[in-house]
Structure formats: C-alpha cells, structure tokens
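Checklist before submission:
- one chain only
- standard amino acids only
- sequence pasted in full

Submission:
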Amino acid sequence: MTHQSIDSTFFPELSAGGFSRVDGTVAFYQRVNALVDRDSVVVDFGAGRGVGHIELGSPYSRALRNLKGKVSKVIGVDVDEAVLSNPSVDQAYLLDRDGSCQLQDEIADLIFSDFTFEHIPDPATSARELERLLKPGGWLCARTPNKYGYIGLANQLVPEAIARTVLKAAQPERKEEDIFPAVYRLNTRRALLKHFPSSQFEHFVYTWDAEPGYHANRPIIYRTFKVLQYLTPPPLKTIYMIFLRKRTDSGRSR
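Returned file contents:
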C-alpha cells in the first residue's frame, strides 16, 4: 500500500482536491497567505532548496506554499547553500552559523519558518535576529514539532543513527538531503515565551495533529497513531502552529 492510498483509506476527501481535513500544510499556509498582500516583503527563514514548493503535497498545497509573485518580494535565508538555487525566492542570503544574516533592520512584513525551529541550536540569537528583521506590527509564523508530542519525544530518546534508519523506513519518499538533526530548543510554550516575550510579541499559538506521517505504509501502524492522536490532550499534540505579532510599542531589540 502506498503513502497516498493509505491516507485515502482514512481520509476519503483526499480525492476532492488532494488534501485532507487535517492537512497541516494547508492549515498553516492558508493563514500565512491571509496575513500578506501584494506589497508585503516576506522572509522565508530556513528556506533550503524549496522542496515543499516543488515536490511535496498536492498542487493546491504547493501553490499555497509558494508566495513568490503574490507579494512584493520573498527573501530566502538559510545556513545551507542550497538556498541560493531555491526557485521560490526572489533573493537568497546565507545565515551565519549563529543564525544572523546581512539583511537590514525591520525589512520584513512577515517571516515564516516551516519545520526549522527544531533545528535551531542557539534560540536566543535566532530570536533576536528574527525580531530585528521584523517590522513593528509584522508577523512571525512557524510550524514545528512539539517537543513533548510523541514524534518529538521519540526523536529525542532514540539515538540519531537509529532515528535516521527508522525515518527512512517510515518515510521512504524522504530524501537524505532533507534530513537534519533536531535539538528542540524552541519547541515549547515556555521557550517561545522566553525568547519572544509577551512584552514584545502578541502570541497566537495552538497545537495540531495532521495525518500520521511515520507509519511505513502499514495500516495497523497508521490506525495506532490515529487512536493515539485522538487520546492525546492539546498540550501533547504533535505540531505547534505559531503566529506571533511584533508589538508596535516594544522598542528596539533585546
């Protein structure tokens, strides 16, 4: 059974548009799209090679991901030189290993970061840089695993070499170059409030469970994860959907 067919077994509405009622990509990027307009300058923090825009999901979800042409400018930043060839950005810059870049202060109306926060080794430095780049009143939008969700916990408890082997079996379509070590230092409500304090940011954060993604195309594993998701309380859901608005009266960076 393929990944698509097993999803269709549990979410028959996939045949009507190519996405399920719990599709996390659609949920996240619909809200991102609602927060920008033609004049917006957008920064894709952790843009990489743009795999989500060209390879993953339905045509509808790929179109939602790609903001190029919908806004004034999309600027991609990443530590990986692959960002320099990302087709979904208008400009690309390399981040220093500490998370800083050469962009000017308050350049962005919106910054989005999709499955990047879990890889940030120094959240304090990265948070200062994100706050520096964002205009007052601008939005910081991120999707990232919950440190205390079952996927986050498994990733932290299993040694990296074993985790990579399991990931390849569970998600055989995942490419090696798209797998990065996760440290989970910016993946709890407490961490978000610490590094993006309420004195500087309004917080609109919620948790989410999308379709199970680590099931090796086995119905019994898929069904087990569905039951687990149903029983899991909101603080332990697998994904954080993070929407923060920079206050207009917060003053300069920390």
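Reviewer check: The beta strands are 41-45, 73-78, 91-94, 108-114, 134-145, 201-208, 239-246.
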